[in-house]
Amino acid sequence: MPHTYDPTNIFARILRGEIPNKTVLETPHSLAFHDINPAAPVHVLVIPKGPYVTFDHFAAEAPAEEIVDFHRACAKICAMVGVEEGYRAITNAGAHGMQEVPHYHLHILGGRVLGRLVERA
Ligand code: 5GP
Question: Of all atoms in ligand 1, which is nearest to the CA of residue 107?
Answer without folding.
Answer: 4
